[in-house]
Amino acid sequence: MQRCIKVICLLYFVNPVNLTTSEAFLSHCLNQRGPEILWIKFMDVYLTVLILSATLPLSHLNNEKQLLQFREMIKCTLPNSSPLQDFGDYGCFCGLGGQGTPVDQLDQCCFTHDHCYGNASNYDSCDSFLDNPYTNIYDFKCNKNTKTITCLASNNACEMFICQCDKTAAECFAQAPYNTSNNQLSNSLCSSASRENLSFINILTILTLLYSKIQSH
């Protein structure tokens, strides 16, 4: 795992603009579900936030949309898409925060996805500190020929629930029309919208607490 981290950092600093190689290698590391799984759970979130923070404004950071597995699902159903650019700040609900009324079918997909994550937090099987949509790692496979996603039976109940949330959203994105005018939509056009800025320091504080929790096990 230390080798994975070193290579990811090297790839990033060599070419900080293009995240494709770094993300691909991180994905490879995340598939090594061995004894270090708790450490990987932490690094999944921590490295994603760290890498993306260097290329995106803080106002665009959203831990829900930074999960690499969700990104991979979107790339499965929409191979030619750029998930962060296309869906990181779309409508009133695709991106940071979100209030008001969805502006179109695609924005409704994000609204439903947000609520699905909220339901996961209240799901009986998601009762531990690490069992939440922002840190949980699930198993899925992508059929590139049919552009379909399968959440695998190896998932526990909580992982399956979260996997289905992301799967449903990725499939919804693929079916919904994309209106370029709704990308980076002004907050004033979202009814009662208040898309609060998410402090990067606050994210690191949460991740530090998560790391301490993992180390105590």
TrEMBL record:
One example GO MF annotation: signaling receptor binding
Residue ranges of domain Phospholipase A2-like central in the record: 66-191
Annotated CDD domains: PLA2c
Origin superkingdom: Eukaryota
Keyword Calcium listed: yes
Keyword check for ATP-binding: no
PROSITE patterns: PA2_ASP, PA2_HIS
Catalytic residues of the enzyme: H113, D166
GO-annotated biological processes: arachidonate secretion; lipid catabolic process; phospholipid metabolic process
Cofactor note: Binds 1 Ca(2+) ion per subunit.
Primary localization: secreted
Positions bound to Ca(2+): F93, G95, G97, D114
Leading EC class: hydrolase
Compartments in which it is found: Secreted
Cofactor: Ca(2+)
Keywords attached to this entry: Calcium, Disulfide bond, Hydrolase, Lipid metabolism, Metal-binding, Secreted
Cysteine pairings via disulfide bonds: C92-C190, C94-C110, C109-C172, C116-C165, C126-C158, C151-C163
InterPro entries: PLA2, PLA2-like_dom, PLA2_Asp_AS, PLA2_histidine, PLipase_A2_dom_sf
Catalytic activity: 1-hexadecanoyl-2-(9Z-octadecenoyl)-sn-glycero-3-phosphocholine + H2O = 1-hexadecanoyl-sn-glycero-3-phosphocholine + (9Z)-octadecenoate + H(+); 1,2-dihexadecanoyl-sn-glycero-3-phosphocholine + H2O = 1-hexadecanoyl-sn-glycero-3-phosphocholine + hexadecanoate + H(+); a 1,2-diacyl-sn-glycero-3-phosphocholine + H2O = a 1-acyl-sn-glycero-3-phosphocholine + a fatty acid + H(+); N,1-dihexadecanoyl-2-(9Z,12Z-octadecadienoyl)-sn-glycero-3-phosphoethanolamine + H2O = N,1-dihexadecanoyl-sn-glycero-3-phosphoethanolamine + (9Z,12Z)-octadecadienoate + H(+)
Family recorded in the similarity comment: Belongs to the phospholipase A2 family.
Protein name: Phospholipase A2
